[in-house]
């Protein structure tokens, strides 16, 4: 259905910098059509002063005036023939999208323990028996239990943790449940600190 005089933003021309709105873009388009350089210069300066008033909070930035002129250059597609008060060559970088960051995808046998736990398993496999290895095994086992509580919505099994620790350390770490005591873990302990403070 098409009604004369009504149109949607999706049907209109794409805005280079939507934060300034369609009216500023129209002013820039009008400025491009002015016949003399002095008229275009006066019009451009007026547009920049309006842009400045739209975002007064940006005046705190040292180079905010330069940015306004860069934005004008972008909205005019660098076709505006005026005496630019600043070098506008850097304006191209404003609309350039950065390259996406590579997300580290590592294959791990059991996702709920996480990659860092598997680094600990490797460390435990290489350590000589002694107090240091025993302490790391204790810390690792307790963290494994915490991870299980989080992923299992509050349920965990000590025997499963002991079995998994033995399996992922190739049998090097064998915890005896008759002597080894896990730290008490509850879902309340798993809540972020910010939530705890609100109560």
Which properties best describe this structure?
2 domains, elongated, 199 residues, mainly alpha, single chain
Instruction: Give the rounded overall mean pLDDT.
Output: 83
Care to count the β-strands? 0
Please state roughly what percent of the residues sit in beta strands, choosing from under 5%, 5-15%, 15-25%, 25-35%, 35-45% or over 45%: under 5%
Straight-line distance between termini: 54 Å
Structural class: mainly alpha
Radius of gyration: 31 Å
Into how many domains do the coordinates divide?
2
H/E series: HHHHHHHH
Question: Which segments are poorly predicted (pLDDT under 50) over 5 or more consecutive residues?
Answer: none
Assign an overall shape.
elongated
Largest sheet: none
Helix content: 40-55%
